[in-house]
Structures are given as C-alpha cells and as structure tokens.
C-alpha cells in the first residue's frame, strides 16, 4: 500500500512538472504531506517543534467509545491539514501518564489526542477499540476535524495501551503507523499486522519483560513489513511515561516517515541508530526501497 502511494506521488510530481506552468514546485508535488522545516538531530530532540500549538479538553460525557481526553494541535492552518495520532495510557493509568507526548508531537506537525479509557482496568483489546474510537471522533466530529487528513492516522500507547495499539493496527490496516511503548499483551503473535510499526521496549522492564512481550511482538510481525524494534538501555517499564528524548526523537521520525510519508526523516531510522541510550535496535531498512 505504501509503495503504491509513493508511486502515485511520483506520477503527481511528473504531471506537476509537465503541466504546472512552474506554479507547483516538484518538491511540493512529490510529497504534499511534508510539514515543517528540514529536520536535524537537534529538531527531533527538542522539547518543542516548529509549530505553535493549542489544546482542548474532551469531556468524558461528550463522547462515546472512549473516556475523553485532551487534543493537542497546531494552531496555524497555513501548512494545510495534518496527520493525527491517538495515544492510550496503560493499566490503572490515566492520560496524564502519556500527556508529555501530546505537545511534543503536536508541535512537530500532528494532531494528537491522549485518551482516558472507559475504565483504568481495561485490557489491551478494549484499549485498541478505544484508540480507534478516539480517531473516529477526531476526524468525524471534533472541533479540530477540519485540520486533519483522515487518511493519515496513527496509534500509540503505553503498556496495555501499547498492546492495544497492536490490536488497533490489526483491526484497521488503513492506519499509517503504530508505536507500542513498552507494550504488554497476552497475545504474542501479530503476523497479520500491515501497519508500519515501531516497538519500543525497555531493557529492565519487569512488568512487560522484553523477552516475553516487545521482542516476540516484533519478531512475529511480517518480515516484509516496515518495522523496527528499539530497546531503551537500562530503562524500566515506566520510561515512556515521562519526558524521554529517545522515545520522542524516534517516535517523531517514525510518524513523520509513515504518517506524512516524509522521507527527510529516513536518515534517523536508516541506517539503524545506535548510542548509549539504545540497548538494541532492529529494523527492516531500507524503508524507501
């Protein structure tokens, strides 16, 4: 699906060059989803990106299918519409545990909703359904729906929310990206997933040990899939629940690459990254092949 979309964009670019009369630049036509300036290591590590953002509260009683949440969104509409991502917390947790990701990702050019679940005890499959319900709310009736390109959506989640993001990706293959963060799920095989997936595990995770969760999840994903596994060095299960530059920079890169089809971010994913914060990284590079 992603290869076909890239081919279509190349055709659009060629037509623009031929018939555009110089009014549409080939670069813009080749990737109309690019948002923001060319990235650097500093820009993906920064606590804020180039977009000014606003936020709005979604009351639990105003929605169905999930427990409300908070929307973070770029305030300017001059760049066009944006991709959107729903993020679920883990077992017994509220949206506050993943709240730091809202402004961090939105300021890079995404609409983000961090959700509360219907019950803090909801299992991964339920959290997956609630992530999709949140995306449907965002694109269908939210106050920011006109800012969103409903064809460019992703899911993320921590712990059981991470397991839920895998479930959501299985249910809705039209999603553009999934990022399970130290994911937990009793289901170990995800061989039907068609959504580009970055799994982030933690070396010292005693709640969802990588050997029985993140690693087998990654291994079970199709070999032909755009996928990656990043293991945080000397980190615990809760590492993604507070500001973490490694989680942020590779989540940004993955979402930009697959939600926005922005190959400018390929450099941060291929060749595979390394460094003191990364215990292990596996990948199916090159993504642009």
Structure notes:
- The protein is α/β, with parallel strands linked by helices and 289 residues long.
- The chain contains eight helices and nine strands.
- The protein has helices spanning 2-19, 26-30, 41-45, 101-106, 124-140, 160-171, 214-220, 245-258, and strands at residues 53-58, 69-74, 82-88, 110-115, 148-158, 177-181, 197-202, 227-232, 278-283.
- The chain has a nine-stranded mixed beta sheet, with helices on both faces.
- The model is unreliable at 1-28 (pLDDT under 50).
Task: Give the biggest sheet.
Answer: 9 strands, mixed
Major beta sheet, strand line-up: 1-2-4-3-5-6-7-8-9
- Give the termini separation: 13 Å
Write down the overall geometry. globular
Provide the residue-averaged pLDDT. Answer: 91
Unreliable segments of 5+ consecutive residues: 1-28
How many strands in all? 9
Output the helix-strand order.
HHHEEEHEHEHEEHEHE
Q: Which structural class best describes the helix and strand composition?
A: alpha/beta
Tell me the β content: 15-25%
Note the total helix count. Answer: 8
Query: How many whole angstroms does the radius of gyration measure?
Result: 18 Å
Helix content: 25-40%
């Amino acid at each position: 699906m992603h290869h076909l979309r890239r081919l279509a964009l190349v055709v659009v670019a060629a037509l623009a060059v031929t018939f555009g009369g110089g009014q549409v630049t080939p670069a813009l036509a080749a990737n109309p989803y690019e948002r923001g300036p060319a990235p650097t290591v500093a820009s993906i590590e920064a606590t804020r990106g180039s977009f000014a953002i606003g936020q709005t509260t979604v009351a639990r009683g105003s929605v169905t299918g999930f427990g409300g949440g908070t929307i973070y969104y770029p305030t300017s509409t001059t760049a066009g519409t944006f991709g959107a991502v729903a993020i679920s917390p883990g077992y017994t947790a509220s949206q506050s545990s993943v709240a730091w990701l809202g402004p961090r990702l939105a300021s890079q050019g995404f609409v983000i909703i961090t959700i509360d679940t219907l019950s803090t005890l909801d299992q991964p499959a339920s959290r997956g359904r609630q992530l999709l319900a949140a995306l449907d709310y965002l694109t269908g009736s939210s106050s920011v729906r006109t800012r969103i390109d409903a064809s460019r959506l992703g899911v993320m989640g921590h712990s059981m929310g991470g397991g839920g993001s895998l479930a959501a990706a299985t249910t809705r293959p039209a999603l553009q990206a999934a990022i399970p963060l130290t994911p937990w799920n009793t289901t170990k095989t995800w061989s039907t997933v068609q959504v580009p997936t970055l799994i982030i595990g933690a070396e010292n995770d005693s709640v969802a040990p990588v050997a029985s969760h993140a690693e087998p999840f990654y291994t079970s994903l199709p070999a032909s899939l755009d996928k990656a596994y990043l293991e945080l060095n000397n980190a615990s299960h809760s590492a993604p629940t507070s500001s973490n530059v490694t989680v942020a920079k590779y989540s940004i890169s993955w979402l930009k690459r697959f939600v926005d089809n922005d190959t400018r971010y390929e450099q941060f994913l291929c060749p595979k990254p390394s460094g003191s914060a990364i215990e292990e990284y596996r990948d199916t590079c090159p993504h642009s092949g």
